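Sequence only, no structure available. Ideas?
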Amino acid sequence: MSTPALFDLPAGPVSTAAVPATFRPSGITVLSYGLGADSTAILLRFLASPERYGLRPDLSDLVVVHAVTGDEWPDSLDYVERLVLPLLRAARVRLVQIARCGPEDADGVVILDDSRQPRRIFAQGPWRLSDELRAAGTVPQMARGKRTCSLKFKGWCLDAWAAAEFGTSSFRRVIGYHAGEMDRAEKDTGIQREANAEAGRTICEPYYPLIHERMKRAAVEAYVLERLGEKIRKSYCAQCPFSGVCASRGAHEERLRQHPNIAADVLRMEYVSQALNEKVALYGTTSLRGRLTQDGRNTAVLEAFALSLEQAPHAVYEIRRIYFAARTPECKQWHGRNCRSPRWWCRQARTGHCVDAHPAGRFEPWCSGYDECRGETKKGQAWRSVRTVYEGSRAGAEAYVWAMAAQHGMRLERGEHSGVERAHYMTDGDSYPTASAYLVAAPAGVHDKQRPKFEERFTQLTGRVGMVGTPVRELPEQKPRRLTHGTPPILRAKTIGGVMLIA
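Reply:
I predicted one. Tokens follow.
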């Protein structure tokens, strides 16, 4: 544990009042193993020269932890099983494989395997990232550049496991950022510094060996090739929206061509996402399908997608949305985080005339909302209702949409980017609040969902009562979110006859 962290942690003594009496360094180094080149290079260097990195010669103080998302490429799994696991077995290095048990944190984390003689890398656990995306009818989001799926399916699992494993003892946490990723390392260290300060103790010390050794990506890949004799490929989920970063577009599309069935699954996921929301493709408004059609080499992939789409069970979804007006800067200024007594100017900006004619007083602006005082509204929070109104074949679902459009005078329109046909009976306006509603046919599997007060708000805004279609099932009962109270359950898996049992 003598190797220093790259960045200094909060200085000064830790308050003894905030630290349990059992607090102590564990003497353990935990390597977050993502199966890719960076973390593999670190692992190989640890195996070759443990004492150089502050580890015991027998590596008994090293724990390698892999968080299973369930959507890793098969060739990445195969590479590690063939070339890396034999080295771990020979050195008796402890490998722990963990995964989420379900969509809620209260479902806990399952330990799929914990062994010094690991024989395989698990392809999936009880709840995959793709399971969550398909249930929601969406693709991974890239909002503000945050990798929210990684935080939920990797970071959270690793933190929960470490809390159960080490309690109040600290450990050294190793992540494979290379020398070209200083910004990511600094951000990671800042987050850990804040977590340590909030806990009143050192939960863990971040350590980035590749940055210490000034190894950039090319050097990392060359080192792994030299040690293992085979080029390692990027490790990332097949539906990753950062695939342009995780792998160049050319390399990513070549991988899709090598795995047409996986490519078809990702394309079908994107198709459903765009069916429910035209603007949500895999790369924002740019779709993977659009990219693939630009290259004649992708014909087999597109044919596999078309076949899977034709064979998939379909549903017709009635999609309704409410777009509320955003709070104005003046509302936030005068009413704080929660607006409990809204005025007209809380959701509608005041014009320059109003600001001059009705200046703010001691407590807040005063104006009755004359026409010349009302400015523009901006888009705020959106509520979505998804209800299944038909289930059957693709042909049957499309016929249902056409029949309903004719019966109710709906406007049939194909999406500008997706080409998906929808039957619109309400189109959102240019000001807020507003609403939209349509029927669309797409592969089945999206869960029915809406907020408890959606119907009330929708009727208030539009004057419409109920839906056009008849739902095939009742909405699932709204259950309160289960709390973990800071300690999500850690379960263990056991495989008997090929069946995974969790207890």
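The first strand starts at residue 25 and ends at 32.
Hope that gets you unstuck.
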